[in-house]
């Protein structure tokens, strides 16, 4: 063939309207948009009533009298875990599979709704026996094993607050999150499996709980340890307890008590523009309403027949909203997988889809691009005909990857929904509805019914088509963050000050096209997006300068074909690092240092040892110029630099 495919795809203009067959059976129809437009608050009240069970019905939908502090369904009472478990059993669906869990080594286990409910009841009794009460914070540091889901739901069931910390984070990151939330309990495992190896977790917890540099103990009273890898563990008697020993001793019955709609459900830490991660706070009734609503409508869920798989880890917001709370609130059957996509072979994901007959897949563009590079012959070895809908999340999906995803994974027929949202928004905010929207590769397209979005300029005027602007949410939404844990001021300042206290500033750049569809253009602040995970430049910079070798550091997110962005650091060392070999040694030491301090995901792809950094006259590092260098581009406008020669010095020192 002489057709230049790459060129074709770069100018992708194809549109994909829903097939008649799909549209006829679709959960979400045009009426959803009409209903939300006619009465936004009434629409959300209806969703809350029809999707959830309220022990005590609410009479007030939204209290927005003190923005940006919102209260949704405030006088209502519910139990989040009851909504995800018991009520499905009581409705006669106890025998439906809730979870198909697949371990990386190939072990597996399935739980019906009745079985999962029974496990969570015992775990709730165990937490109570350990003294955990409503409002207490519990840190969860687990691999993706069933106990992760069970632990989260057990914490929710007793009205306590979980803080899940991704298993790839370091002891230091874990400790700072434990300290910030003053967690009383850590639930962890001896280890988990990744890339064909057992990796230990318990030693990281032990290290995190040591007295800090000032001699202060942590707030943690107990550590509950799930046995997963059977690796050796150190044991602190009185503090450490085996999950399986303890759970065997508690009562099997547990009655779920109602809690107020605004009872805190979880804290999840995410990177911001400063070095200190923010504890994003979500509450119960509004959050569960919107995650259930979006999971049902965006993914066109038929709980009786679909098998849903979100590949996210519970350490991220996608794992909270679309592995645990959304699917289980809707009574879905879902798959969770502990390991990496290429272990023990590069077709592992496709093998899992074939094995469980997955019909809905929700994954990140980074993964899709990696599979694209490996070639279509790998997925083609498996039967993927069960798939009927594909989703994307975490970063913009380029049209090439979108089309490949639909063609190769979706057999050329499945809709692909690109879903934009954030840890802070709690649930999907912008996405096509697969039975309604004509799909446009590369665009997240339209706000979901009930959500009000705009793209504005610095003066808060809606932008013209094809003019870049700032993405804002102009009306409160049920799953909105309720605050930053312990820091109301930072909450107001970060999200609700740029355009006043009723407009949420998302930190993303975006543009409308001529049809009014929304295209996301990446972060406008110093937050990077590496493989769909948020990292802060400031956090990595402060890790670098904490190393005695480093005098100054600047970090940028450089575009990367596979991971979206990659961490690239520019470092001025204290000692002279004259020759190239010394540079390389220093760079390797520093890469390892960042990985140990923050976690492997933050390890810079490249570190350049330089003599100077480009700064404005007010002393601000000009990351734009460093990004030019990191991406191998011609260096842009340098006229605002204090020292206009500095870029030449940098380019020279990198040669
Ligand atoms: C859910 C999640 C949020 C940031 C967000 C944006 C980027 C997420 C996206 C997307 C373009 C999409 N992002 N989904 N960008 N298209 N469909 O990823 O939450 O980890 O908090 O990241 O991710 O930049 O601001 P979180």
UniProtKB/TrEMBL annotation:
<dbReference type="Pfam" id="PF13193">
    <property type="entry name" value="AMP-binding_C"/>
</dbReference>
<feature type="binding site">
    <location>
        <begin position="194"/>
        <end position="197"/>
    </location>
    <ligand>
        <name>CoA</name>
    </ligand>
</feature>
<feature type="domain" description="Acetyl-coenzyme A synthetase N-terminal">
    <location>
        <begin position="30"/>
        <end position="84"/>
    </location>
</feature>
<feature type="domain" description="AMP-dependent synthetase/ligase">
    <location>
        <begin position="91"/>
        <end position="485"/>
    </location>
</feature>
<feature type="binding site">
    <location>
        <position position="547"/>
    </location>
    <ligand>
        <name>Mg(2+)</name>
    </ligand>
</feature>
<feature type="binding site">
    <location>
        <position position="550"/>
    </location>
    <ligand>
        <name>Mg(2+)</name>
    </ligand>
</feature>
<feature type="binding site">
    <location>
        <position position="508"/>
    </location>
    <ligand>
        <name>ATP</name>
    </ligand>
</feature>
<comment type="function">
    <text>Catalyzes the conversion of acetate into acetyl-CoA (AcCoA), an essential intermediate at the junction of anabolic and catabolic pathways. AcsA undergoes a two-step reaction. In the first half reaction, AcsA combines acetate with ATP to form acetyl-adenylate (AcAMP) intermediate. In the second half reaction, it can then transfer the acetyl group from AcAMP to the sulfhydryl group of CoA, forming the product AcCoA.</text>
</comment>
<keyword id="KW-0007">Acetylation</keyword>
<feature type="binding site">
    <location>
        <position position="534"/>
    </location>
    <ligand>
        <name>ATP</name>
    </ligand>
</feature>
<dbReference type="Pfam" id="PF00501">
    <property type="entry name" value="AMP-binding"/>
</dbReference>
<feature type="binding site">
    <location>
        <position position="531"/>
    </location>
    <ligand>
        <name>CoA</name>
    </ligand>
</feature>
<feature type="binding site">
    <location>
        <position position="523"/>
    </location>
    <ligand>
        <name>ATP</name>
    </ligand>
</feature>
<dbReference type="InterPro" id="IPR045851">
    <property type="entry name" value="AMP-bd_C_sf"/>
</dbReference>
<keyword id="KW-0436">Ligase</keyword>
<dbReference type="InterPro" id="IPR042099">
    <property type="entry name" value="ANL_N_sf"/>
</dbReference>
<feature type="modified residue" description="N6-acetyllysine">
    <location>
        <position position="620"/>
    </location>
</feature>
<dbReference type="InterPro" id="IPR025110">
    <property type="entry name" value="AMP-bd_C"/>
</dbReference>
<feature type="binding site">
    <location>
        <position position="545"/>
    </location>
    <ligand>
        <name>Mg(2+)</name>
    </ligand>
</feature>
<comment type="similarity">
    <text>Belongs to the ATP-dependent AMP-binding enzyme family.</text>
</comment>
<feature type="domain" description="AMP-binding enzyme C-terminal">
    <location>
        <begin position="539"/>
        <end position="620"/>
    </location>
</feature>
<feature type="binding site">
    <location>
        <begin position="418"/>
        <end position="423"/>
    </location>
    <ligand>
        <name>ATP</name>
    </ligand>
</feature>
<keyword id="KW-0479">Metal-binding</keyword>
<dbReference type="InterPro" id="IPR032387">
    <property type="entry name" value="ACAS_N"/>
</dbReference>
<dbReference type="Pfam" id="PF16177">
    <property type="entry name" value="ACAS_N"/>
</dbReference>
<keyword id="KW-0067">ATP-binding</keyword>
<protein>
    <recommendedName>
        <fullName>Acetyl-coenzyme A synthetase</fullName>
        <ecNumber>6.2.1.1</ecNumber>
    </recommendedName>
</protein>
<keyword id="KW-0460">Magnesium</keyword>
<dbReference type="InterPro" id="IPR011904">
    <property type="entry name" value="Ac_CoA_lig"/>
</dbReference>
<keyword id="KW-0547">Nucleotide-binding</keyword>
<dbReference type="InterPro" id="IPR020845">
    <property type="entry name" value="AMP-binding_CS"/>
</dbReference>
<dbReference type="GO" id="GO:0003987">
    <property type="term" value="F:acetate-CoA ligase activity"/>
</dbReference>
<dbReference type="InterPro" id="IPR000873">
    <property type="entry name" value="AMP-dep_synth/lig_dom"/>
</dbReference>
<feature type="binding site">
    <location>
        <position position="318"/>
    </location>
    <ligand>
        <name>CoA</name>
    </ligand>
</feature>
<feature type="binding site">
    <location>
        <begin position="394"/>
        <end position="396"/>
    </location>
    <ligand>
        <name>ATP</name>
    </ligand>
</feature>
